[in-house]
């Protein structure tokens, strides 16, 4: 097997140190890209009624737009990660913004279904590259201990894009109409593409970064990535923790609260809005804890997964199906907390893979939550239709059975991988720092002072207790 050749890490004594002002400004531009991409991803929800009138669509045809865009996003996750590894996040962010700009131009000018579908597909294609490329920038520009925090802050930027873009888009549609509104989003994407190309650099050193230069086939790299226990654990973490809140926030939360539980529309909207704000506070806090106390990541993940499983089992087994209001709020709030905790999956994947496969690993992880959410949403709709379209409490209990089973299965799998994991074959608890004091990489062991790596291998003592402990991964 041909292994990826990694560039030696650059010293931290250059003009742009890790975590400095330039690093924060570059991440801020990348986070702005993700904010705009998330806004465009959810813009159809705001423009749903206008789209029905413009294209003369029914509810089923309208839902095809969202499913198509999410499907393109899902299918492109691994290719997006591979391309971010091979070509660098700067180029991929520029390409993503240009793809979204072209898609919005087509969507703005479309008067028929095929052209509109093509436009939304291009928006989904560009959207697929943004998150992975931004966290790839965070991995290159910040110290290791801040990666989990930066991943959480990036996700928070996307949530802000969904919340802050709703009112301006609605006002623009009312004031200016369909075509000028979506042409404006296209212009915004194009201008941001110029800013990204001018300001962002892939690495603090300027022109080079730790890109994948492997001669192995892509499928070989993918198998190697999936063979890492940390990657598989991260996939299940994202699958379990992120999916339930997406099901509630994007499609079924409001009908469940209003039709299923009998909550008034105003309080239902307020509940979803306030609980959607929970990840804005929870995600950075968890990211900070994971960065400073990595050993606590596993406990946080298992605790949130167990809480998710409990509240969803209560929801689908409550007698009569009508949860009391406090329990309904707890269901949405715990699901939102799970969405915030799912960002720890990318931290686990980064620890399990070299930088040259960081984008591919992130793409694999991102598939977990989105595939679960898409499957659960479609299953809920099919089961509600099977009950005769009655949006009452017992029908929603049946509709939410698939997502509950996914959460329980994922929680058991996470616990199994955490308790009965096997030591990795090649990478003990030794990490290459990006902060060397010489041209030799720095070897950092837990509890030891960093020192330059020696070119002569140290003798290995098989069966040693300390060696066995150091080779055991932590999550």
UniProtKB/TrEMBL annotation:
Record carries keyword Amino-acid biosynthesis: no
InterPro entries per record: MFS, MFS_dom, MFS_trans_sf, Proton-linked_MCT
Membrane topology: Multi-pass membrane protein
Transmembrane intervals: 26-51, 57-80, 117-135, 147-169, 181-200, 233-254, 266-288, 300-321, 327-349, 361-384, 396-417
One Pfam family per UniProt: MFS_1
Main location group: membrane
Signal peptide positions (record): none
Molecular-function GO terms, alphabetical: transmembrane transporter activity
Entry keyword set: Membrane, Transmembrane, Transmembrane helix
Alphabetical list of SUPFAM superfamilies matching this protein: MFS general substrate transporter
Keyword presence, Hydrolase: no
Low complexity compositional bias, start-end: 464-475
Region entry Disordered, spans: 427-475
Compartments where located: Cell membrane
Domain of life: Bacteria
Annotated Gene Ontology cellular component terms: plasma membrane
Domain Major facilitator superfamily (MFS) profile: 26-422
Protein name, as recorded: Sugar phosphate permease
Source species: Actinoallomurus bryophytorum
